[in-house]
Amino acid sequence: MRTCATILLFCCLPLVQLAAGEFSVDAAAKDFLAANCMDCHQGQDAEAGLDLTDLPTASSDEAAFDKWVHIVERVQSGEMPPRDYDQPTAESRSRFVKKTSAPLIAHQRQQHEKFGRVRGRRLTNLQLERTLQDLLGIDIPLASRMPEELRTYGYTTVAAGQSISHFQLEDHLKVVDVALDEAFRRALSEPDEWSKRLSAEQVARRLKQRRCREPEMLDGKAVVWSSRLIFYGRLPVTTARQDGWYRLKIKASALNVPEDHGVWCTVRTGKCVSSAPMLAWAGAFEATREPQEWTFEAWLSEGDMFEVRPGDATLKMGRFQGGQVGVGEGTSQNLCGLATHEVELERIHKGPDDQQIRQWLFGDLKVQPGAKRTAGTVVSDSPQQDAAALIKQFAARAFRRPVADDVVAPYIAMAKQSLADGDSLMESLRGTYRAILCSPRFLHFYEEPGQLDDFALAARLSYLLWGTTPDDELMSLATAGKLHQPAELNRQIERLLQHSRGQDFVKDFAHQWLDLSEIDFTEPDRKLYPGFDVIVQQSMLDETHTFLQTMLDQDLSVGNLIDSDFTFLNSRLARYYDIKGVEGDELRQVSLKPDHKRGGLVTQGAIMKVTANGTTTSPVIRGVWVSERLLGVDIPPPPKNVSAIEPDIRGAKTIREQLAKHKSSPDCASCHVKIDPPGFALENFDPSGRWRNFYPAVAKGRRSKGPKIDVEFDMPDGRHFDTLPQFQKLVLDNKSALAANFARQLVAYGTGATCSFADQEVINQIVTQSEEADYGLRSIVAATVTSSLFKTK
After folding, report:
1. CA 225 vs CA 3, 28, 315, 339, 675: distances in Å
2. How far is the C-alpha of 686 from the C-alpha of 528, rounded, in Å?
3. CATH superfamily of 195-348
4. Residue 31 pLDDT class (50, 70, 90 cuts)
5. pLDDT tens profile 409-465
């Protein structure tokens, strides 16, 4: 099969030329601006660079349209004119907003009706991975093989930021080939699952007296001690001979257990050699004196192995000479240790079995599997007819809708030509399936302007809540034309969220909405913030995911994002937060008290870490983050001539003192009045997520107590707060704003386009619809999915 035909199919994407329409604002709007705004916004020295003197009332220019939208929004919110200037009457303000908004909204809706509010949108890397997995029945992680994606307005799903370069085309072809190779391998060969049980002696080092980084034998157990030595605790006996998913069952106990907690251990995977230092997370557990069993699953590339070791940074760390550990060296230092009793290692597959893969690829045709390393064959009495039927069936699944004869005809012709050239049926099918998976009908969402048809709606719903192609039930409903019916659509929302795959929604969405994808970007300075480790970090992520999942499952108010009386902790994270009475390595719901200094997603460690740089905190960075991600307040980029604020870690000046200059500048003050309140409210949390009352100061490499932290500030509307709880209470006075922001974030993530000026009316309807449920998270999701924004292109 020739790749040029495949690439040609892939590249023939329709190019849409957008005709510019003209909007026309009531000329009286200029009179309002002249009376209330022109003093500050005219000429070269206009404040914020907004010159209103030459602003047209009728134009096809998008920049002029955006300026009018900006003006209307600021007048409507009361930001313009500023509070210390003469104010227009409420009647004149309302009249200006209403009469000016109408033509702007009409213009934008006309554009949406003609071209769609969402332009051409393609699958993201993660969506492509899951789609190929579900389409072919494979379980290979594929997203890591693709180039990193840009996030536009925070999301990789937004169409405006998606592009296809020739490098991405090449990577797409490689990924498709990897997926097809694995699917055909499993369909045409014998099963490759296996398991083996390993004793402690088999897990330990082979040469008992050798200095190395494998466990040593002690009293019949394979033992490793607490240490910062890299790769200590590696298990060469678990080395993978081929790429795949592996299940590790370990029975272990702790040695020299601390009085108030167990020995927390990490399970990670990698080559465990200096030439490949990166390790992947597989899990953690708290070992105690009594032996227990734990199970972990991880993807291992060929040559990878498991590493199991104490990972709690608060434990006494061993000192070993030469980077290797000898027998008895940990015992002599009285270190905490992990004693492995036995291990079971299994090669497993996730998802469908080999028979189901055969069915999807070859239908009811007879397959003769090959030996372990020998490909099998597909038997057919009528290769051309069977190929045509299988290709049409495969194309319908890949394109997420029934395929017309003219759409599938080129693929069938390709297969027939391949057979005529002497290729086997298996080779012909593989080449044609490859072409289908490189088609824009597969990679892109097939949506026409206007209301989505049931198949497009099924795809949009499934990719929002599961991140993958629609399942059989959604496709059946779409075929019957029932999915768009309100009752049925609501039923499907519930079904998808209640399914085990529904938990992917919270993780996928939070990964981008809350920047949790950035949690590995920095590491807190160990000298400034001792006790932080990878177990704490993963526990923080689990806390946030579980918290959001509970909000969704129980339809809890969006207000819990700002403040709540519960969270989810294990014993390690509770100890890190200095919260007593939490035991065990499983997350459990914990009631919060005022002295815990916690409450709401906004105070969780994961959020504090992704909004800091590992060494210092900045009220500006956190303030912008909270404003845009939770409060729904857009913050424009800072003026180019204003230097950034770098916190003084010597403790000579507080961040408040350094920001005073910014606040005194007219170009900066309009934004800082929004940024600073949430930023300062969270200053008591350090970059590692812990509570503090004083800034740290560093002199001659030593940490000391710096200036006292002062969170006192005024809200943009003038209301004052002295403490974080007071700030939280002021924010919660307007839960509807939090609900509106969550709906807008969900619309951007789920539809591929951010909310425009014309969309605000529907957002208000979503908020009103969820009000009776106190703006419950599940209610907002349901109202968003059933809204016109979600159901139209």
Report:
1. 54, 78, 10, 9, 47
2. 10
3. Galactose-binding domain-like (2.60.120.260)
4. confident
5. 999 999 999 999 999 999 999 999 999 999 999 999 999 999 999 999 999 999 999
